[in-house]
Prior knowledge:
By secondary structure, this protein is an alpha+beta fold. It has three domains: 2-112, no CATH class; 119-189, no CATH class; 195-294, 2-Layer Sandwich (Zincin-like), CATH 3.30.2010. The chain has helices spanning 86-90, 93-112, 137-146, 178-208, 248-260, 269-278, 282-294, and strands spanning 2-3, 7-9, 22-28, 35-42, 48-56, 63-66, 72-77, 119-122, 127-135, 152-156, 159-166, 169-174, 212-218, 223-229, 235-240. The strands form three sheets. The chain has a six-stranded mixed β-sheet. A five-stranded mixed β-sheet has the order 8-9-12-11-10, sandwiched between helices. It has a four-stranded mixed β-sheet with strand order 1-14-15-13, with helices on one face. Strand 11 and strand 12 form a beta hairpin. The longest helix has 31 residues, at 178-208. Zinc ion binds at residues 1-2, 257, 261, 267.
Amino acid sequence: MxxxxxxxxxxxxxxSGAPCPVRLERETCRSGGIAAEVxxxxxxxxxxxxxxxxxxxxxxxxxxxxxEEGELCLGAPAGLALSGQTTRLASLLPGLERAWRAYCAxxxxxxxxxxxxxxxxxxxLGRECRVRHGGDWQRGCAAVxxxxxxxxxxxxKARRLLLLESxxxxxxxxxxxxxxxxxxxxxxxxxxxxxxxxxxxxxxxxRCGVAVSRVGVRDQRSRWGSCTRDREGxxxxxxxxxxxxxxxxxxxxxxxxxxxxxxxxNHSPAFRQELARYAADWPLRERRLHDFWRALPWWAxxxxxx
Length: 306
Ligand SMILES: [Zn+2]
């Protein structure tokens, strides 16, 4: 799997005797009935942030991560009970306060700059489409009647939007507010991704000489792709639909990364060796994927749309 890099925050000491703004909770998962650990942090301005706990045998200390989407996660050593650790956990607060303020400032700045793209580029398909407004809902319905492609339809209570593809134009009709329009563009891109990415994975699988039993396109919030193996040892690959926005060579590298996991289900030196057979410059390419994720247009980010 290829996770998106997150921001680690190192702990600092806080004066003893201060009230502890950290609380521990247990959440019951809907599916398995397993109680998940949650640490609740209260910031100075009253903001309450909940961090899911991820245990790791390799972890030697607490690491708090705030994702690009504002989700908080606490990495913790396996087997260390959190109940006696609230003071140590509270020492993460100054760093969390700073990171949260920076996140809020970024979010405000991006909300102010939410305009629809004029063009939408899908390099893997060799396509570039113009994005334009076409008029009201009725006009959209009339255009659908003579269009060849099924439209993308987005509704939110009384608001309705149609996205119609015609040649190299994507035309939006109805309520084209940015949140509905973002959802429509995402759905359209996902449709394109489903039509192309599985084929790209299978082409690269042939090149690597590995068997793939299933390729899916999903809306992962924090990773480009993932790989598991079925009972016969064939790969089951899931790619993020956003990969359709990548330059073609980066999309191919993403496929290769996931396919190499069929032979090595980890990120060990053996995995890197396997990957280097197909992409000697893999560190650079992984960096490019990471950078591309951070630079995704606002409407394609996991926090956009509905
Ligand atoms: Zn991986």
